[in-house]
Every structure is written in C-alpha cells, then in structure tokens.
Amino acid sequence: MGRYIIMRRKFLVAWMLSALAWGVAGATTVTNQGAVFRFSEWSPPQLLQVASPNGYEALLSRSATVQIVDGYKRVTRELVRLYFPAHREMWIGPKGDYYAISGNKIWGIRTQNGRILIKHSVHRAVETPEDSTDLPAYAEAVGDDALGSMRDRETRAFTALQIFGIHKSYALNAAPLYDDGFYLTGVEVVAAGIKVSMRCNSLSYPQTITFNASQDIVSIVHGTQSIPPVSNPFKVVSNYPFTQYSIRTIDTDHGDDMALQANRDYRVAPPQTGRQNAPVSVVRMGFTINAATGRMLFGPRDCVVVDIGGTLYGIDIRDQAIRVYWRQNTRLPFDEHAFAACQEQCRAWETALANNHYTLQPDAVFRLPEIFANDSRFLKAYEFSFKAITVINGNILVSMYCDANRTCPEVVISPDMKVVSHVVKTY
After folding, report:
1. Domain that holds residue 90
2. What is the rounded CA–CA span in Å between residue 301 and residue 245?
3. pLDDT tens-digit profile of 370-421?
4. Which of 29, 41, 121, 344 is a Cys-bridge partner for 106, taking CB atoms 3.0 to 4.6 Å apart?
5. Residues 148 and 262 in one domain
6. CA 191 – CA 98 distance, rounded (Å)
C-alpha cells in the first residue's frame, strides 16, 4: 500500500508540474470545435539555412509544443514557426522533414501515415514574429483534423499512388505489386521548382516529383524514366473521370516501354422501349499513354496496346473477330501542361462517346472465320481468347486460344491493317 501511495504522489507531482508548465507566461489556450489547444511559449529565434533558387536563405526558426485535448483523446505535437524577413512570409505547422523556398514562399514537406503533406507559407505584414496572435487562427484552420495530421487550408496531402500510379507486373491480368509505404530521401530547389525524391517500399528504384510555386506538377520520374504528369492531387478538378492510373509495360517495335493506363466503367441505360426495369449495361473504357513518347490512345478497357512507329494500336478479340483501334491517338506534353491537356482530351473523348450512345466502333475488323475459311477445324462458330499480343518485325502478332479444338491460331497484321500471314498451331 505504501508503494502505491508513493507512486500516486509522484504522478500527482508530475501532473502539477506539467500543468504549471502549460500555465507559464506566454502560453496560449484556444478552444475550437470542442478541442482545446494549449500552446507553449515560442522558443528564442534561431537561424535556419534553407535551400532556395539562390542557394540558401536564412530563416528565423522558433519551436513550441501544442497539447490538444478532445474528450478522452490527448496528443502532443511539436510546432515550428519559420519567418522569411525578405518577403515577410510566415510558415506555421508540425515539424517538417524538409523545408525549401520557391516563388518567395516557404514550403514544408513531411510524411505521416503513408501520405506526403506539403504546406506553403502565407504573407504576413509583420516585421518580427514575436507575438502569438496567429495561434488562434491556426487552431481554427486545423479544425477537426487536430488529432490527425493537423492539416490546414494551405496543406495538401496525398499518397504516392496518386502521383506515381498503381504498379502492376508485366502479365496481362496480374495482381497489383505495391504497398503504400514510402519515405522521403531528399528535397532540392531546381529551376523548375521543388524536386522531391522518395522511395516506395515495394520498388527497387527511386521516384521524384517536381512542382512549381503554382502547385503544378512539372515532372514525374520513375527511376530514370520520365512520364507525363497527368495527375495532380494538389488541385481538385470536378467531373474528371480518371483520378488514378496503373503502371505497366507495352510491347513496341524497339522493346518494352513503360505505360500509364486508366479505366472507367460507364453505366448506360437502355433506350426507351416501354419495358420496365430494363437492365443497365456497363461499358468499360479507358486510355493508355506511352510514357516514353507521350502518345495517348482511347479504347475499350480490355484492349492490349502495342506501339509501332510511334502509333498506339489497341487490339481485342470479340465475336470471332480481331478488332483494332488506332484513330483515337493524340500526344501529351511532358511539362506542367500535361495535366490540363489530359483532362481536355478525356472530356472531348467522353463527349464523343456519349453522343454515340457509348458505342465505340473499331477502326479495323478481321473476322477469324474468314481468315481461316480453308481450315476445316474452324467450320463451327468457335470462341477465341487471348494468348499474347506482341510486335514482330514491325507487325502485330495476335496469338489466340481456341479451346474447342485445342488449337492456337496466330494472325500477323501490318500497321496499314492488312493480314500478312496466319497459321494454326496445336497444344
């Protein structure tokens, strides 16, 4: 019992000292949305050298702790306050992993719970950052995310997947090979803006993004491969159908290229026929972008895409026919304009698709019963399925399965949409 009383006294003493520390002169208490913020006094200023376009700039740095109590939940966080005297910019937020100056603003970058958080400073018309009048405003800006990542209106948070896409293996129907764990490895200030380097736990190569002061993503790099920055979680765009893409490879006439793919399902109501509860059909569409060239192709979701001579061809097999799509080709830039250009192309394509009752006609059709008309094994209406689509000698090799008669038909199609050769193999 005596030991319990001693431990309890020690706890009470520690609690009283803690309460006294929070009640010293200079501390600030703010209540917002039911949460109580207890800010300690700011520390004396120190000089902090931060990377900038001119090399390094000196900022005034102060730190404080904030205790947030919301019901039975309690967290304590370290805050950092940076002041850029040359341009009167103030940055307040949780301690960052890296800081930089771009566009005369202070940028803080950190990771938390599988997300990267980027926050920029705001202009303050003050000469010195001595007062604490901005703490109530900061507590209000944090709002109901006080116990989370403490995001305010200047903070953008996103996962690596929103930038770099979902990684998939080279197989056509492979499961995703990624996890969301990643960490920052460095921040540089370059001519185009701020370059953030990171690594994902599931990848063997680094990844980088570069964004400018207007929060446009200027470049995205997988290892050594630059890809068009067609996504930008810094900016919320309404009615944009493709918000996430996957990474895979496509076969070309010079080897494998990295490609971006995004898909969307459209629920299409049938025309008015007088029937009640008529079934709603699902039309699966998407686009593929060759990351090496910026070439972009729209087509059915099940298409296998290859690149020959800089033109993308989408091939699928349906209704005993090889269907080829290539006329919906366009090219995207590799700079901050790629995001807007991709949106514009997607909206134009969706409008044309809707005007055509969500039916996309192939640009070329090769009917397999006609190609193999002289082969008695294909006299019946057999079904064909994909085996592989490859590029061989500048042509498209379509290999298929016909399970009914245990054969593997192959058709070679030239870029000018002519059948070069065909053969039937068995298995």
Report:
1. 27-157
2. 13
3. 999 888 887 777 788 889 999 999 999 999 998 888 899 999 999 999 999 9
4. 121
5. no
6. 18
